[in-house]
Design brief:
alpha+beta; 12 strands; 460 residues; 3-stranded antiparallel β-sheet; Cytochrome p450
Length: 460
């Protein structure tokens, strides 16, 4: 029956539930606004505490700079290369007990192994059923939250399918033009007229974290504290675990307000893509988004910083190859791949055997930890002649610098794109780019992560 033909008393009675629903909706809206205000207040409080800590450090210069502390802890305190040791170990056996290149013996016989040969590493990383990633949950899971880093199939595939929606080819092309290019050029503007710079400190170390912050849609004024928290988080395992846990918690609280806001009002950023991502009815929870954003810092930002810095060392110490790339930019993708092969940003990753098996004839018992030496695998002389030489013109063969198999680096395409944009801008804007003859020779160091501590250059 149409409402206009109903008795007046009945119409009034039926309007009451509508008014009640309206009142409840208004109350819910008010509560949402209140929650948003609380989230914003919490974000501001977190950044305020970080700013206070920053001010305290400025007043007390004896406090360690986390950037310097991070490099020291990662072994960036001298020109030490692991590759001769890798070559000796590969010649002795493809797989060794313990982690002999780091001086770690297999005290509990059969509990730990390290794969040094390319075929061994490739086999392990390609077989996610026999070699599990779940062990990362014991350490990195505590710090990052439960992420795809520690997931095995089929859970890993389901979550990776959701996360990959933030890394489409269309998005990558848009980021390159609208975000990465302007950001890199803006940073070069700050030193282009000086005709000398430390490329690590003034560009390559900084810009990848700024890219991640921009992709996440973070406010510009939050960048300094976000960068510091990011560095503290990345350096967790060897720098300061307690500080890293605090940084992780601060990042989680900071991101909570942003995720909540994006669920209500999506914007044009990666967090908005993640909150809306759906695959076969599955969506990401807030905690899963927090975990991914925290993981994105080492997977995206640090990978780019180290791979681009290592590549620049390779090119600057081989001026003929540098000149070739500057003259013909179609060589830049080849140079990027050779740089990652020659000096991968991360030397090792780990797996756990799920059953008794063997690798290259070496028996591995169920439950054993297997360290995969990406650095050694990428220098396997059976695959790359004269493997320790940087050569962008060598025969192209797939390397393993971004890992292999189901856990192949999710941020590798972003890292490649950022590196190509950054180096292209340097070559365009710094004519005659070369090593600073007045500075010490550059070197790459690190026991686990590899990068040059500084890279001094001059230009015309």
């Amino acid at each position: 029956m149409d409402e206009s033909h109903q008795p007046a008393a009945l119409r009034v009675t039926e309007r009451e539930p509508n008014r009640a629903r309206a009142a409840r909706s208004e109350a819910a809206r008010a509560e949402n606004m209140s929650q948003a205000a609380r989230s914003e207040a919490a974000r501001a409080e977190n950044m305020s505490r970080a700013a206070s800590s920053e001010a305290a450090r400025a007043e007390n210069p004896s406090d360690d700079d986390p950037f310097e502390e991070f490099n020291r802890a990662m072994g960036a305190d001298g020109d030490a290369t692991p590759y001769p040791t890798f070559a000796r170990l590969r010649a002795e056996a493809p797989v060794h007990p313990g982690v002999p290149d780091l001086g770690a013996l297999d005290y509990d016989e059969g509990s730990t192994f390290t794969a040094y040969a390319y075929d061994a590493v490739h086999t392990i990383l390609g077989d996610g059923e026999t070699f599990s990633s779940a062990g990362y949950g014991e350490v990195m899971g505590v710090l990052m939250g439960r992420s795809i880093l520690q997931m095995d199939e089929p859970e890993h595939h389901a979550y990776r399918s959701l996360l990959q929606q933030a890394f489409t080819r269309t998005e990558m092309q848009r980021w390159e033009v609208e975000l990465v290019g302007p950001l890199v050029n803006g940073m070069i503007d700050e030193f282009v007229d000086d005709h000398r710079a430390d490329l690590v400190r003034q560009l390559l170390f900084v810009f990848p974290v700024r890219v991640i912050a921009a992709l996440l849609g973070l406010p510009e004024e939050d960048l300094p504290q976000f960068h510091r928290l990011a560095v503290q988080l990345i350096g967790a395992t060897t720098v300061d675990w307690d500080r890293a846990l605090l940084a992780s918690a601060a990042l989680r609280d900071y991101l909570a307000g942003i995720v909540e806001e994006r669920r209500r009002r999506p914007a044009d950023d990666m967090i908005s893509v993640l909150v809306q991502a759906e695959n076969d009815g599955q969506r990401l929870t807030d905690e899963e988004i927090f975990a991914f954003c925290r993981l994105l810092l080492p997977a995206g930002a640090e990978t780019t910083y180290r791979s681009s810095s290592n590549l620049m060392v390779g090119l600057l110490t081989n001026p003929d190859q540098l000149a070739a790339v500057v003259a013909d930019r179609s060589l830049l993708p080849l140079a990027i791949e050779e740089g990652v092969r020659w000096e991968p940003p991360l030397l090792i990753i780990s797996r756990t055997a799920t059953r008794d098996t063997e690798v290259c004839g070496v028996p591995i018992r169920a439950g054993a930890s297997i360290v995969c030496s990406l650095g050694s695998a990428n220098h396997d002389e059976s695959r790359w002649p004269d493997a320790e030489r940087f050569d962008i013109f060598r025969e192209r063969r797939p390397h393993i610098g971004f890992a292999h198999g189901p856990h192949m680096c999710l941020g590798m395409h972003l890292a490649r794109m950022e590196t190509q944009v950054a180096l292209g801008a340097l070559f365009d804007r710094l004519p005659g780019l070369r090593l600073d003859p007045a500075a010490p020779d550059p070197y790459i160091s690190g026991r686990v992560f590899r990068a040059p501590p500084r890279l001094d250059v001059v230009w015309d």
